[in-house]
Design a protein that fits this description.
By secondary structure, the protein is an alpha+beta fold. The protein is built from eleven helices and nine strands.
Amino acid sequence: MVLEKLKHIPNPTYVQVGPLTDFVSALFTGAGMPENEARLCAEALVDADMNGIDTHGVCYNLDLHYLTGLLNGYINPTPNVQVTYETSGTAVIDADKGMAMIASVKAMELAIEKAKTTGMASVAVKNSSHYGAAGYYARLALKHDMIGFSMSSGGSRVIIPMNARYPWMGTNPMAFAAPAGEEPPFVIDMASSMTSYGKVSIAQAFGVDIPEGWAQDANGEPVTDISRRSAAIGQPPLGGDYDHGAHKGTGIGVMADVLGGILPGERLSGMMMDNPKGGRFCHYFQATRIDGFRPADEFKADMDDMLRAFRAQEPAPNAEGDVLYPGYPDAGYVTKRTETGVPLPRHTVNYFKKMADTLNVEFTIPE
């Protein structure tokens, strides 16, 4: 499988979560961020790597989004994050063009706090940047016996809406997390496209050709030869085309635009391109108290039963693995990488060394 090829990093350098977080935090501080906010952002990114979401961790996004944005001036290193509108069960936060993790964690924590009283609460964030892995924020609700939900809208025009010729929307991801008792939690974290933009970037870095549906050219034809990536103008939505349900991916993307964008007073992702370096982003977060419906322990016991029954299904004869639910592989990565450390490709180690020199930060990553 292509996805398995992308998970295989040749001759990686393994770094434990603590030292890796310390180093990335130091890079952010060197780029002008306060230490506590730099640490928060580093923890969110390394968490993606720990969960096996390498596309949204430190290996690729520091250069693509964060350090580049901080050093080039289109991410504010010292934002004044403020609540600009609020009711008992809702709020809007202005991220002041800062690192999105700052406002996003604040938003999810505020939604959780409000939900303790109201049972369900939602907070939207506007004027933000790329927030990393959507599932990180949804999972923040789990330890409170709540269901978490997160969506993001904006960024570069990557997704080509159904029947359109050119890209107009961001990848507009969503995540939903529900706790279980003994089983790993159910966590679905997905883009509204056939795959994340990051997977295409990793395929290019590794020289791996991509399946049909991951990218297409200006004539609507699929691009599979990764050496022709420059011919690709965007990605089709989830479903790919009309016959295969492209309205689903298009609809999910627009839903993110509505909840994260129009609701707090932003615009559709395709209309937020005033910044040539990747556009603006906006987000939506929701927390739901389980014991607002039934006792949380009963809910989690039933989740265990359902998830075990799901995993017990017989694999198809040509299946390339066991029957797993979203969130189960992530837990396996956490267990494995807690022991081995996070695998870093050679190009990431080289980039880290370069940025440490640039920012006058001690290089603490083994070479």
